[in-house]
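Two folds, back to back.
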Amino acid sequence: MNENTARLSPYYRSLTRNMVLLVMVISLTPMVLVTGIILNQFSASHHEKIHAHLGELVLKHKQNIDGFLSEKLHNIRFLADTIDVDQCGQPNMIEGQLARLQGAYGPVFVDLGVISEQGLQVAYSGPFKLEQARYTDADWFKRALESRDFTSDVFLGLRGTPHFIIATQKSCQDQKWIIRATIDFLEFNRLVEKVRIGETGFAYILNREGQFQTKPLFDFTPDLDIYNRYFSNLERMGKEVEIQERLDGKGVKSIYVSALLKGGDWLLVYKQAYSDAFSDLRNAQTVDVLFFLFGGLAVVGMAIWMSAKMVGRIATADKEKEIMNEQVIETGKLASVGELAAGIAHEINNPVAIMVEEAGWLQDLMEDGAFKSEADIKEFERALNQIRTQGKRCKEITHKLLSFARKTDSRIEDCEIGHLIEEVVALSAQRAKYSKVDVVTRLEPKLPAISASNSELQQVFLNLINNAMDAMDKTGGTLEISAKQESGHIVIGVSDDGPGIPKANLARIFDPFFTTKPVGSGTGLGLSICYGIIHKMGGEITVKSALGVGTTFEIRIPVKTDEPTENVAVSVTDTHS
């Protein structure tokens, strides 16, 4: 069978498909597992790396912002310690202090003022007209009176622009004075705007009321409940930085990194889209998937090529095996013919002897000249008819023998079991007579046809009949052959009342070259050939035997159907009388 035939055969197509699947599973499973484990470990490692990097970034900027606020507060504290409140009313006194601050630290200090305990700003220096401004009702002023140092939230105030105030107390002449400075909001906001990574990462500051203390890069409304939980978690767990992954208000998965500022009054939040933060991971995963796909395609291609190659070789081996099996069957058939030869020769010898005798009688009549009378002519006609009859008989015998002995024809066609059994019984009749074996047939009439090879079925029946006769050769006996329909099968039984088969040999009787006959009397292939033929037809062959009782072979062949059966079952039973 060549590769083209293998591709056309459903069996070899199925075999190729199964081999491809097996090779793919064996090859791809470790690849999938290893790739999955590596990607999972890489993903976990990259997550930890990103989280650690963002946590360190936010912590660093928290320290920078807290350091900035603390530095400005210390600047004002130092100024408060050196300023003489009694001289605050002198012209240019405050202007000089503000000028020194701006000269040392830049425009971050917008203005400077001194406020009495009653809320009146007694001295002011700055770009706004806030001299004699009253802050009695201002919330920041009330809180500044309650603590030595105070930093307010960002608010609009009297000037109408976002700003926040750093203030410190100074006691003089049994009275509290508040020295305060306004911090440039833009300078402070730029400090927070520096926290930028990727395309979507940005930072902002909120107070406990959920109000922005800096201008965020993107406009959105903060969820107060969520940010209150950030405040609570950081305080409760004592953590410097907390990292969470959740959906934002637009349903985009994002990373939130938060830290407390200004003694817990403010919350520094860094937000970045998850896809942006883990873009390197996604790119690496994409590359890995592409490599996996290319590798998988290479494995699939190799599996298909190797499977097709192997199936082609299997098909060739099967073809060679099929040819060898046909040769074995042919050899077995010739051996069976050899076993029948003595009986058939005797059967042919009888009519030949009659023909010779009749021919001699005709010759004698011709020599005596007795061919003119009517009686002589009738004698001639009788002798010729006898010769013709015996010739036909020889012809039938040789035709049956030649029909059986010709090369095996394994073509599948419709077969009539009854007719085949009768032909084989007729071939074995003379040997049965010599072996003192009575052959009894019990054939159910009108058995349905089966799909099989006529010559191969003949071989099976002849092997079983010859084996039975061999078993009863010395003692004679009865050989019964039956055929009937049962449960969608035709059941053929070949039973003898010979000595039976020992239990130790039952399990091996279908093995090739196994025989219990004397050396030179058998090849051990007969039953093996029977098994192979019945197996190929999708049938079943079983044997039951008991010593001193006899042996029965039973063959079950499915009746003709559209779907052939490929499996065969062989069972061996030892029956004790």
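---
second:
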Amino acid sequence: MNVLKPHLQTTVLTLLAAGKSQREIERVTGVDRKTIRRLAQRQAEVNSPTPATGIGAQIPPPRPPANRPSSCEPYREWIEAQLRLRRNYTAIYQDLVDQFGFTGAYNSVKRFAGRLVQREPEQFDRLEFAPGEEAQVDYGEGALTRVPGSDRYRRPRLFVMTLRYSRRSFRRVVWNSSQQTWAQLHEQAWRYLGGATRYVVLDNLKEGVIKPDLYEPELNALYRAVLAHYGVVADPARVRDPNRKGSVESAIQHTQSTALKGRRFESIEQQNDFLEHWETRWAAQRIHGSACRQVQAMFEEERAHLLPLPLTGFAYFTEYERTVDDATCVRIDHSSYAARPAPIGSRVLVRLFEHHLELRDRATLALLRTHPRAQRRGSVLLPPEERPYNPSRETRSILAQAQQIGPATLALCQQWFEHDGRVGHRRLRGVVGLARRYPRRIVEQACERALRDGVRHYPSIQALAEQLLQQALAALEAPVQGELDLTQHHHLIRDGDAYADLFALGAQASADL
């Protein structure tokens, strides 16, 4: 308990005895008016020998009248006109000084004008919901938690789902959020609560809503699929309208100020365990202010009205858009998958699951094709009867480049096209592309060996070209061995004595000079 210091008590009592108002004493001493009032009452009781209502009671000195006229009263009409123009108090005070020679203080104008302003209290429509009808979700900030593998602490994201009828909540903290994390937290909440609500109200965050719109907001595909799996309808709140989901906003604030305030955790699992304990032990046992009932008791009533959960959880996927190539395939993770009946050149949606993938129409989301995931890079999941073998413009362009390299390269590319069809275009482009890194003669020799040995893989052709190039470089750098075969007898070659006389004459001529 805070006790006013003795010297301040003496100062306050002295000013009270001098007839100063409590507001003026507060401005001079900095002591709150409630404290000043208690000191005045205590001093009156000490100085009174009989009860204050009895005979002989000592009446404290009279206070100045509280309703004395303000120094702004002569300017009431002018101030009211300025307030109707929505001018602020500072502008009104400055004009009073400049135009009317006002000598009062700014605070006098502020108090006087504040009493004239008609303030209507902000009103909200309180919405009532049936049990199991609506849940509200949002993100907040959790308590400081140690980052794994370091001594640094930071705040994770706090996910809260609150049932609108009973105010029972599910709370979890995660380090990072994504579309899949957001959807998985919904699943965990429904499993924890034992069922799902008909509607879920969320904010317009990117994990749930791609394009906010008042009439037709666009949800991301993964979140929309998860809601459909559990039979839940999303109801995104309007932009900058947090009051639509006031229950979860209050739950987040209550969690941060009561459960997590001033706490630190060594791991995110420790914080989640604490939140679950706190929800069961304290938050669910509280008496809700507006309902005047225990949260857990209302939740027991609501539990029977929640939607039953499906037997299996949702299978999560990653969604891509791909173009159908002229081989009627789409390429995912370096493998090709048949896309018929989608036409060549069209865009399709690819949903990539853990063990399989789905091809869907981009406009209607109708299922076109299902394939198991390829186990090896470079695989082609296309039945032989669906492979197009008629040459396209790309086929003719590749074969023309192969012909420029050499006849063996052209023969190899034609053989591969007859076997694979247009699906083999990628390998054919790889073969003719070797001419950009190796001499054409090397590529031609590699293709000759591939034809002779029946090689059908591009990496093998590339390895052959690299091997031939290294052999050619080694042959150029090898030293010349052995002696040259010199001719010893010829009609142009003279005797050795003739060359000796010539050298002697040359030496004598040099000496004479």
